[in-house]
Amino acid sequence: MNVFLDMVGCRLNQSEIESFARQFRLAGHSLVAEARLADLVVINTCTVTAAAESDSRQKIRQAGRSGANQIIATGCYATLNPRQIANLPGVTRVVGNPDKDNLVPLALKIPASELIQSTIRREPIPGARLRTRAFIKVQDGCDNHCTYCITRLARGAGHSRPIKDILVDIQSALEGGCQEIVLTGVHLGSWGNDFIQSSRLHNLVRAVLDETAIPRLHLSSIEPWDISSELIDLWRDQRLNRHLHLPLQSGCASTLQRMGRKVTPESYVNVVKLARQMIPNVSITTDIITGFPGESEGEFSTSLAFVQEMNFAGGHVFTFSARPGTAAMNLPDQVHPIIGKQRNAMMRSIFRLSSSAYQQQHLGRNLSVLWEKATPLNDHLWVLNGLSDNYLRVRATSTSPCLNQIMTVRITSSEPDGLIGEIFP
């Protein structure tokens, strides 16, 4: 049977379809790059914003029009709106997040034990979801109570995977030639908190570094209150990518309080200072929400000034999207969407400036780059595109594709969409 996998949303969704891919291959089935070539399509949906829900519906409809015999919808949107998803053309099954780990056995009508007891070398998913980097889910769910967040309702309480299971997945990726592993979760920094003998994220990272020959290890989004000196100290190992994504959401204390965030601007500054002090040339990126209920012109100006002061290497800006079932949906003084979008544009302009300034710092420097894409320029040259160990997009030309190789690149110029460099001979 030919299977097509696709998703909308976060890195966790990417890690989950990679898990599906491994299990389908273990069961003897093939992965294809397009829905029209598939007998079975699996779409991992997202509900974090109204736009993500729209994208999820669109992907399902596109798969239905392609002529696939079966479409299975899963993920956060499918979990919270199963009836709506089930009524979309072509959908034959909806698998909620609580049953997601059993999606492949359910689809194939085989015992889960047949897939759990075997391993197989990782192969990148063909098509648009192809990634040279392997995304490994180490934790799911969340016990925080951010008032805007629907993910906690869709994913449930936080729960961590045992180190031994995580190491098996990592070893599978390494045997498949993977050069970089990304550890991901809904609340990554809470890993190990739910164990009978409580553990911490730095214990997991230390185990991965000690027990595998991993070339590069990347940590996905970490809440600022989960950053500890023990975790930061691990960056002495140069295999850890010099990038921290620390969600802020607002640079205004009163807005953060309404958001239910366990951070203040002052505590955030302290975390960033520690990271920049201990990790040379670390790239720090963040998330910001504009137009949150009650956000006055003064609060937005405070947030804007704080973001400007932090000199982030980059960031994502989201206009507040009211999610049914969240506390923020019923907060007073809802901000008009047009105003939220105007503030979004202003915030993005600050990120563009700070991102450009961070990139400029690397002119003339050498960076370690993992090539993720190779496009033929002519009969003799390829344009390579990849990420540095501090999460900068880099391009260079080469006489060979060099895909999935780590190389040293001398940075020669900067453009709005990334850095340009020359590969060391």
Descriptive key words:
single chain, 425 residues, alpha/beta, Rossmann fold, five-stranded parallel β-sheet
Here the CATH topology of the domain at 1-130 equals Rossmann fold
Quaternary structure classification? single chain
Portion of residues in beta strands equals 15-25%
CATH secondary-structure class of the domain at 1-130: Alpha Beta
**Largest sheet data:** 5 strands, parallel
Low-pLDDT segments? none
Q: Count the helices. How many?
A: 14
What is the architecture of the domain at 1-130 at the second tier of CATH?
Answer: 3-Layer(aba) Sandwich
Radius of gyration: 22 Å
Structural class: alpha/beta
> Would you count the extended β strands for me?
18
Principal-axis shape: globular
Average pLDDT over all residues: 96
Proportion of residues in helical segments: 25-40%
Name the CATH superfamily assignment of the domain at 1-130.
Methylthiotransferase, N-terminal domain
Amino-to-carboxy terminus distance = 45 Å
Q: How are strands sequenced across the largest beta sheet?
A: 2-1-3-4-5
SSE arrangement:
Elements: E1 2-7, H1 11-26, E2 30-31, E3 40-45, H2 50-66, E4 70-75, H3 76-80, H4 82-86, E5 91-95, H5 103-108, H6 113-116, E6 134-137, E7 139-140, H7 151-155, E8 159-160, H8 163-175, E9 180-184, H9 201-211, E10 216-219, H10 229-233, E11 243-245, H11 253-259, H12 265-278, E12 283-290, H13 297-310, E13 314-319, H14 337-360, E14 366-376, E15 382-388, E16 393-398, E17 406-415, E18 418-423
Parallel strand pairs: 1-2, 1-3, 3-4, 4-5, 6-9, 9-10, 11-12, 12-13, 16-18
Antiparallel strand pairs: 7-8, 14-15, 14-17, 15-16, 17-18
